[in-house]
Design a protein that fits this description.
NAD(P)H-dep_reductase; Rossmann fold; alpha/beta; about 20% strand; about 35% helix; two-stranded antiparallel sheet; binds flavin mononucleotide
Length: about 220
C-alpha cells in the first residue's frame, strides 16, 4: 500500500497556552504561525497549522467525573476538545512562565484528555522574563506522562530582549510591548518545526507499517 501519495497533511496544533486579557501569548503565537507558514513542508502541503487558542476554548476547570485515561467523557465541551486534539498529529505549545511553571489553563486543558495526546509529537515555545525555561521544563514532564514525544529543539523568548517597550510607560505593568524576536529565534523555531514534521511523519509511517494489509 502506498501511503505517501494519499496521506493527508501532518496537522500541527499551535496551542496558545495563556488566556488573560492583554496577554503577550497572542503576539508570540502570531509570530510562530508566520514562521510556520514559511516552512517548506507547510508550503508543499505536507504539513498544516491549526491555531488552538485556549482563550477561545474557554474550558471550565476539569469537571469530568472519570479520569481521562478511561476515555469516557460526559460533557459536550470535553468531547469537542477531544475531537480537536485528536485531529492533530503534533503540537507547538506556546507557553508563558507563571510562577516557575505553565499557566493553570494549559495544565487544565492537558488534564482533560489522555489518549488524544498519546503518540503525538510536541515542540515547546516558551516565553518569560528568562525565556520561560522553567515552564518548558515542567511541560516536558507533563507531556511525558501523556506519552507525547517532545522534539529536542526548544525556543525561548525573553520578555527583556525579544520585546521592544519603546514608548511604553516603564511603570505600566499592562504594557504588552512589541515582539521583536532576537537573532537566531526564527532559525530555532524553523529547526523545531522541521523536527516536528520529521518525527510526526516517522510515527505515521511506523503506525501504517504496523497496520495489517487489507485482505482481498
Ligand atoms: C501569574 C504570573 C506569574 C508569573 N511568573 C513568572 C515567573 O515565574 N517567571 C517569569 O519569567 N515570568 C513570570 N511572569 C511574567 C510572564 O512570563 C509574562 O508576564 C508573560 O508575558 C505572561 O504571558 P502572557 O502575557 O501570555 O499572559 C508571570 C506573570 C504572571 C501573570
Amino acid at each position: 500500500m502506498n501511503t505517501t501519495q494519499t496521506a493527508r497533511p501532518i496537522r500541527i496544533g499551535l496551542v496558545v497556552g495563556s488566556t488573560r486579557p492583554g496577554r503577550r501569548g497572542s503576539a508570540v503565537a502570531r509570530w510562530a504561525q508566520q514562521v510556520a507558514s514559511r516552512q517548506p513542508a507547510v508550503r508543499a502541503g505536507v504539513a498544516e497549522i491549526a491555531v488552538i487558542d485556549l482563550a477561545e476554548q474557554a474550558l471550565p476547570l476539569l469537571d469530568e467525573p472519570v479520569p481521562a485515561m478511561f476515555g469516557t467523557y460526559r460533557n459536550p465541551h470535553t468531547r469537542r476538545w477531544s475531537a480537536m486534539i485528536d485531529a492533530c498529529d503534533a503540537f507547538v505549545f506556546v507557553t508563558p512562565e507563571y510562577n516557575h511553571s505553565i499557566p493553570a489553563a494549559l495544565k487544565n486543558a492537558i488534564d482533560f484528555l489522555s489518549a488524544e495526546w498519546n503518540g503525538k509529537v510536541a515542540g515547546l515555545l516558551s516565553y518569560g522574563v528568562q525565556g520561560g525555561s522553567r515552564a518548558a521544563d515542567h511541560l516536558r514532564l507533563i507531556l511525558a506522562e501523556v506519552r507525547a514525544a517532545v522534539v529536542p529543539t526548544q525556543v525561548s523568548i525573553s520578555i527583556f530582549t525579544d520585546f521592544d517597550f519603546t514608548g511604553s510607560d516603564s511603570g505600566d505593568p499592562t504594557a504588552p510591548g512589541m515582539l521583536v524576536p532576537g537573532e537566531g529565534r526564527e532559525e530555532s523555531l524553523s529547526t523545531m518545526l522541521a523536527e516536528i514534521v520529521t518525527w510526526a511523519g516517522a510515527l505515521r509511517a511506523a503506525e501504517a507499517g504496523l497496520r495489517p494489509e487489507p485482505v482481498g
